[in-house]
């Protein structure tokens, strides 16, 4: 890289991109107006997208389809290392609409 006389290595000019927002897209226009630094805000959104989705074309990103079975999958089995003691858990499972005495639950946890 060529060096200037008193400033060290010469800086490369930044990449410049153009962004067009249709007049009908009022939400994007309003969001852009709220930004103190539009360039930095868009770069932060791009970095967030890279973290979540990787380097992909957002417009043509593949869609992960939900299995078409018509039924909701059964919940996973609950591990036995629950923080709620077994008697309290069984009581709650047997009568889900019955009020539970919180003091009894705390007493069982202390044992």
What labels describe this entry?
111 residues, mainly alpha, two-stranded antiparallel ribbon, 2 strands, 4% strand, elongated
The proportion of residues in beta strands is under 5%
Shape: elongated
- Helices and strands, in order, run as EEHHHH
Structural class: mainly alpha
Radius of gyration: 29 Å
Please state the oligomeric state of the protein chains shown: single chain
Considering DSSP H and I runs of 4 or more, what fraction of the residues is helical?
25-40%
Number of helices: 4
Mean pLDDT: 77
In the predicted model, the low-confidence regions spanning at least 5 consecutive residues are none
Question: Order of strands side by side in the largest beta sheet?
Answer: 1-2
How would you characterize this protein structure?
The N and C termini lie far apart (72 Å). This protein has helices at residues 26-34, 38-53, 86-94, 102-110, and strands at 3-4, 8-9. Strand 1 (3-4) and strand 2 form a beta hairpin. It contains 4 helices and 2 strands; from the N terminus they run E-E-H-H-H-H. 39% of the residues lie in helices and 4% in strands. The chain is mainly α and 111 residues long. It is elongated. It has a domain at 15-60. It has a two-stranded antiparallel ribbon with strand order 1-2.
